[in-house]
Amino acid sequence: MKALNYGSLNIDFVYNVEHFVRSGETISSQNMAIFAGGKGLNQSVALAKSGIDTWHAGNIGEDGEFLAEILQKAMGYRFIINEFSYPKEIKVGAQFPISFKVVNSGSSPFYYNWPVEVALLDPESHQKVWGKILEEVNISEWMPGDNWSVDEHKYQIAPPTYHIRKNISIDAPIAKGKYILALTVLDPAGMQPSLRFANENYFEGGYHPMGYIGIGESVADTRLNPDLFFDIQSDKSLKYQFKQPDK
Fold first, then answer.
1. Contact at 8 Å (CB) between 4 and 55?
2. In Å, what is the CA distance from 51 to each residue of 40, 47, 70, 86, 166?
3. What tens digit of pLDDT does each residue of 21-78 get?
4. Contacting residues for 247 by C-beta, under 8 A, at least 6 apart
5. Up-side HSE of residue 196: CA atoms within 13 Å toward CB?
6. Residues whose CB falls within 8 Å of the CB of residue 169, separated by 6 or more in sequence, listed in order
């Protein structure tokens, strides 16, 4: 079952006062709180939490971006990388281990098994130098929690943590030096980054950088400067690219 909901998305300003205002009276509020509201938003969140494939149509202003974020979290998958580990230095041709943990904090799975790619990026341009698809990693199996509580606004059964462990090797000639190890999900139609994780460490173009790594040389510090990250909501570069069939 699918539902398309046309409805309002509002910002509710709630004021706490000592008593109901009487006719002709002016009083001051004790405090104010801001909440997400609107019948349309509430209906879409409830539909999504009940397991229905939900689509929403509505208008928001510049100050209402958090309303769209609430809908996105409620109506679809939300993959969060909680942990990522790898060696500081690797050699071309030699196997090296990577390990990461993912949780789906959204309300639904991603229904297609798109490939997960580990990539090396140029530390200056952030362009891909090398990449490898991780075998036997099925993102359609990354399930959300279950038994949503309307009163507590959370799942009674927490989403499982998926621990991915792989041994991979760089199977192409790569110059020695310092690179950025990154993770992304590719659309198999054009093999371009098209699905993003819900993490702030993000580069324009669809790659999530994990840290610096040395190829044939050691790296003293693997940590990235957060100032390098790009606002994920502002990235308009992701696109679909279809390969033309051979004539």
1. yes
2. 17, 7, 16, 36, 32
3. 889 899 999 898 888 888 888 887 777 666 566 777 888 887 877 777 777 666 678 8
4. none
5. 23
6. 93, 94, 95, 96
Instruction: Identify residue 224 by its one-letter amino acid code.
Output: L
Which residues partner with 138 through β-bridges? Answer: none
Closest CA to 238 of 214, 202, 212: 202
Radius of gyration for the alpha carbons in the chain, expressed in angstroms and rounded = 23
- Tell me, what amino acid is at 193? P
- Write the pLDDT tens digit of every residue in 142-153: 998 888 776 676
Phi, psi of 104 (to 5 degrees): -100, 100
Please answer whether residues 45 and 71 qualify as being in contact, where contact means their C-beta atoms are separated by less than 8 angstroms. yes
Amino acid at 3: A
CB within 8 Å of 231: residues ≥ 6 apart: 202
* Cα distance between residue 107 and residue 110, in whole Å: 10
Token duo for residue 8: 């309002």
Q: With contact defined as beta carbons under 8 Å apart, do 39 and 90 qualify?
A: no
CA dihedral 62, 71, 202, 89 (to 10 degrees): 160
Cβ partners under 8 Å of residue 60, min gap 6: 9, 67, 68
